[in-house]
Amino acid sequence: MLPIGNLRVNLVKLVKINHFKINNMRTQVAIIGAGPAGLLLGALLHKAGIASIIIERQSRSYVLSRIRAGILEQGTVDMLHSVGAGQRLAIEGQVHHAIELVFKNQRHSIDVTGLTDGKVVTAYGQTEVTHDLMNARHAAGLATVYEARDVSIEDFDTVQPKVHYVTDGQHHELACDFIAGCDGFHGVCRSSVPKDAIQEFERIYPFGWLGVLADVPPVSPHAIVYGNHARGFSLCSMRSLTRSRYYIQCPITDKVGQWSDAAFWDELRLRLDPELAGRITTGPSIDKSIAPLRSFVAEPMRFGRLFLAGDAAHIVPPTGAKGLNLAASDVKYLSSALIDFYLEKCSAGIDGYSQRALARIWKVERFSWSLTTLMHRFPETDAFGQKMQEAELDYLVHSKAASTALAENYVGLPL
User: Fold this and answer.
1) Is residue 322 annotated as a catalytic residue, yes or no?
2) Mean pLDDT of the chain, nearest integer
3) Considering 96, 97, 222, 314, which one is annotated as catalytic?
4) Which of 21, 90, 131, 236 is most buried by its number of CB atoms within 10 A?
């Protein structure tokens, strides 16, 4: 058991090694990655009096420029409020009670709230979540290092792990008790684990999502409209009452430059029911991109004093809007485990973190994979396959049991 010591103090001293000035620092938890997962973890630890430093290889403006989904489960909303980052969310977030499914040129509503004893989801962009968490961390005077180059981790199989990085030409060594790898799919943390110590499961989907963000009112008052069509999948979602995000399935080989705004809007209309298509308000795209789809899980999520969380450990296709929410549940489990370690002198939480997190992750992966399979046109989806998808959707919207299962997963499985 490590001595707890002063929970709020980071020690800094300067030494010279091989003619390079090295800043030696100390904290309790080193968090790699200043996305929502890392920032939320830092906020939860700070609330409990546990010190952390966040290391981010990109600039603050770059992190905020990343456009991501924005449907928040109630558990995620509650966590943001608990760390004092929910004020703007409470004002600007749009609470939603239903989703809509379009197939065979007809639209069907699923009463999510009614089927889940009052649970809801909230439309609020991930960029806004990141911004709120950044502001809360800055207001609390907590340390975040942006534009850290050559980030590496070592000795995480001992009780004295370290993080190395370079800023402004100076090399820094950050000693810590634990490292939290919240640095995404391509980050340094998972790639630093020996290959024989980790197992990876992956499904690459043979299509992408062409997405357009535009300052136009949403086509539906519901947070998300999912469309199944012989031409391919479509999705209509809202970011606010004046900003919308739309997607259509496209070949993974397509390039953004092949799609004009006009061509995108025309194709989207073809994949919706006529009444909804007629209500679409078009406008110039603010952001246009093609996102590949994959399902990915790495096991385990703990390696000595290194823990993986969020996209560093798993990826879900965006069909179920679960990426940010799944990262938040990881962070909830990890923060609780670290709080027990420091405040209760109990290691059971950190010992059980990986198993506990993975149990929920695989259930969410199942939901996102099944919804992706149901709503998209795959290369092998011939006329028979399309009829099977339509029959499954017809059963889903007319069966209370099937609708309830969808609704329960959509609003978020219990933590």
Assistant:
1) yes
2) 92
3) 96
4) 236
Out of 226, 333, 342, 353, which one is annotated catalytic?
Answer: 226
Instruction: Map residue 153 onto helix, strand or coil.
Output: strand
Per residue in 247-289, pLDDT (tens digit) is 999 999 999 999 999 999 999 999 999 999 999 999 999 999 9
Catalytic residue among 124, 246, 353, 410: 410
Please count the residues of the chain.
Answer: 415
Q: Give the domain ranges of the chain.
A: 12-69+126-201+295-368, 87-124+205-293+377-411
Tell me if residue 60 falls in helix, strand or coil: helix
Specify the pTM.
0.91
Task: Give the per-residue pLDDT at 301.
Answer: 98
Task: Give the chain's end-to-end CA distance (angstroms, integer).
Answer: 28
**Which one from 36, 247, 318, 342 is the annotated catalytic residue?**
318
DSSP label at residue 352: H
> Each residue of 9-23: pLDDT tens digit?
333 333 333 333 457
Q: Summarize pLDDT for 152-190 with one digit per residue, the tens.
A: 999 999 999 999 999 999 999 999 999 999 999 999 999
CB 67 within 8 A of CB 289: yes
Express as a percent the part of the chain with pLDDT over 70.
Answer: 94
**DSSP secondary structure letters along 203-225:** EEEEEEEEEEEESS--SSSSSEE
Q: Are strands 29-32 and 52-55 parallel, antiparallel or unpaired?
A: parallel
Q: Is 410 a catalytic residue?
A: yes
Residue pair 391/385 in contact (Cβ under 8 Å)? The answer is no
pLDDT tens digits, one per residue of 52-111:
999 999 999 999 987 676 899 999 999 999 999 999 999 999 899 999 999 999 999 999
Segments of 34-105 assigned E as strands: 52-55, 71-73, 94-96, 98-103
Contact assessment for residue 324 and residue 309, using Cβ atoms and an 8 Å cutoff: no
Catalytic residue check, 226: yes
- CA gap 204, 221 in Å, rounded: 32
Can you tell me the distance from the alpha carbon of 394 to that of 392, in angstroms, rounded to the nearest whole number? 5
User: Which of 3.20.20.510, 3.40.50.720, 3.50.50.60, 3.30.70.380 would CATH assign to domain 12-69+126-201+295-368?
Assistant: 3.50.50.60
Catalytic residue among 322, 332, 333, 353: 322
pLDDT, residue 87, reads 97
